[in-house]
Amino acid sequence: MIKEVRDHWYWRPNWRPGRSFYTWHILFPNDPVVTDLHAAYQGLVDSLPGISPVPLQWLHLTLQGIGFTDKVPETDLGLIIEAAQRRLEHFRPFEIQLGPAVVDEESLQLPVAPVDRLRRLRAQLRAAVTDVWGRDSVPELPELHPHVSLGYWNRPAPAEPLHQRVKALTGGTATTEVTHITLITLTRDNTHYKWTPYTALPLGEPPPHTLPPPPPPHQPKPPAPKPNPGARGRQPPTRGTPGRSDPSSDNTDVPHRPVRPARPPTVGHETPRSSSAAHTNHPGPPSGDNGTRTCGIGAD
After folding, report:
1. What residues does each domain of the chain span?
2. 128, 87 contact by CB (below 8 A)
């Protein structure tokens, strides 16, 4: 049993006014069981000297810190959250018992059981940090002694009178269920803990499905070949008319004329403009053209 209580509100290393910290807590928003238990202890808290009471909305059970918000990159924080989510998939919700109140060196607190279950929960959160930052990133800490503080001592005082008062005015115990843990940004200014919730993770639920990767940048669809009624595919140049391609060629401006096979062209005979496909026997679009065709008019 402790002999003296001490001021809780001295500045810990690296803390300063206005600085905030990422940490995992169990919170009790709108929990009727915890609300009733807090009310049952109000008479005791109000009767104790040298204490800073914790309002109902700021009740919490500390689990595991991550780091100061000005030092933890958002990308790393997201990875730690994802790692914690994976590790908690098979960690089912469980009941806890709070109370009765005891005098600790720095607070009037409600011990919380089962201790082993809460320590295993904390171990998963610590492991999530090492998943991202490595095994040496989380310093060894004292074993977790889970509790919910009803108030913090704000000056040194003998502990014995406080023990006697707590024993005489106990507020009992309560049982509730833990279904979520919450990552918060915590401040401790003006002898008061306050926070903003960052995210909450359910216990015993699989992580949400990973979103599919974004589609590749839009590629324009190649234009379809011009319709050519009555023609099927490319036809070789008509015999006896060098350079003359079929009506499906790109030289659609060349009129079709009847062929005179018995009469070869003579000097001065007008030779129509021809497509490059007719002269080069090019089987189709060159590799990498994505199916597009290049007009050969004037290319020869």
Report:
1. 4-8+18-202
2. yes
Give me 77's structure tokens: 């924080």
In this structure, which CATH number among 3.30.1330.60, 3.10.20.30, 3.90.1140.10, 1.10.760.10 belongs to the domain 4-8+18-202? 3.90.1140.10
Q: What's the rounded Cα separation, in Å, for the pair 139 and 43?
A: 39
- Structure-token pair, residue 94: 């469980």
Q: Is the dihedral of CA 120, 125, 128, 129 positive or negative?
A: negative
The region of weakest confidence among 3-7, 100-104, 146-150, 168-172 is 168-172
- The partner residues of 59 in beta bridges, in order of sequence, read none
- Distance in angstroms (rounded) separating the CA atoms of residues 147 and 111: 4
Measured between alpha carbons, how far is 100 from 142 in angstroms, rounded to an integer? 23
Q: Do residues 37 and 96 touch, judged by C-beta distance below 8 A?
A: no
Instruction: Give the pLDDT confidence of 211-262 residue by residue, as tens digits.
Output: 444 445 555 555 666 666 555 555 544 444 444 434 343 444 434 444 444 4
Output the CA torsion sign for 132, 136, 141, 145. positive
Q: Which pLDDT tens digit goes with each residue over 97-118?
A: 999 999 999 999 999 999 999 9
Amino acid at 187: T
